[in-house]
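Supplementary Note 2. Why include the ligand at all?

Several targets in our set were suspected to adopt different conformations when bound, so apo predictions alone were not considered sufficient. For every target with a known small-molecule partner we therefore ran a joint prediction. The input for zinc ion is given below.
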Amino acid sequence: MATDSRLDEVLERLDAGLPEAIERLKAFLRIPSISTDPAFAADVRAAAHWLREELAGVGFDAAVMDTPGHPMVVARTPAGEGRSLLFYGHYDVQPVDPLELWNRPPFDPQVEDTPEGPVIRGRGAADDKGQLMTFVEACRAWKSVHGALPPGLILLFEGEEESGSTNLQPFLRENAGMLRADLALICDTTMYADGRPAITTQLRGLMGEEITVRAADRDLHSGSFGGLAANPIQVLVNALASVKDAEGRVTLPGFYDGAPELTDELRADWQALGFDSAEFLSRVGLREPIGEKGRTGLEMVWNRPTLEINGIAGGYAGEGFKTVLPAEARAKVSCRLVGTQDPDAIRAALRAHVRAHIPADCTVEFHAHGNSQASVMDTSDPAFGAAKQALTAEWGREAAFIGAGGSIPVAGDFKRMLGMDTMLIGFGRDDDRIHSPNEKYDVESFSKGARSWARIIAALM
Ligand SMILES: [Zn+2]
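The joint prediction is reproduced in token form.
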């Protein structure tokens, strides 16, 4: 158990070692580990080996483990008495084009001074090499103060996160015994707006469905057949329009089963974030929040399920005009899911609803696209409160439990396949330009990120 004085020493060690830590990160960033482009396969492997060497140098038992694609890097410390932790990050990066929009070579990283403070510029600086190194640097400082690494740590670094994580699930399945811990930590997200530290504790799931309605056996002339023959576009839009009521609620029977109300703690946390729906929408040229009446903006994007029509096609939509009753119409529909909503049950309810709107001589065909439940972490586990306090102490601003409207599949995989909850704690900022030219990571994010992990390790061990 770490005493506070030793934590202070670890933090001092991190501060004193910051210049060397930045040099190590720059060396890592110089390796062009672009996972999606086969031309860089050797570089991806080189990045894995660089990381393994670093981790072994810090004192981990570290290995590069092959998969049918790019390798995994796994490092561990001996089991201890306390809580075991699995830390996840990824060492692969996105492609760099268009190259001409970079203000420096993407794999020649440098520290640049900007009006907002110094930043480390280069591909992967924020996503995710800089972020994963915050944890490695915290471990390094811990070791140099305590003489040993924290026990019960497992580090897992993936090399295919930016290219579909094809081999992650099989790897987790085959190595479940080695990877299972009491809790997972992922450092691949941003802080809440304007640099407020946050722990993401819930992620929405996803259900996707493609619907094809067919009527006549050919396209029809609207003068000869219009008014008599079924129009599949009309059939489809009727079915989809009645999926929501005037209050913005989805009408499918059982749709809200498993969609939980906010706890008092989360409601208070989210209130304190001061989210302004109108301001948020104004960034995309909108003003008026739409959606369920009586819900706050953050509830709508983090804690309420959605049903959206993402695409619709049929008939003639080209230049000019053509008076046609098309033979078929198609739509793509997706739902973001929360709590314990069951994607299969919702898919079945949507299909039943559409079938009920199909005239007898039309047909409908369904095609499933993706299926994942929401991930909701158990924040009553004291580890969550302890990590929140640690972040608050480091940043001097109240840390918050937040949600994410999208999905981060690895967190769901950890839950389903290894039975672990995940704390998603990232130090990125909204202007880091990840996946874009001129990616950067603030030196403050790097430095205080490592300090944050030292505090969190001290609090959780
Ligand atoms: Zn990432």
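Residues 205-259+305-370 form a domain with the Alpha-Beta Plaits fold (CATH 3.30.70.360). The chain has a mean pLDDT of 95. Comparable summaries for the other entries are listed in the accompanying table.
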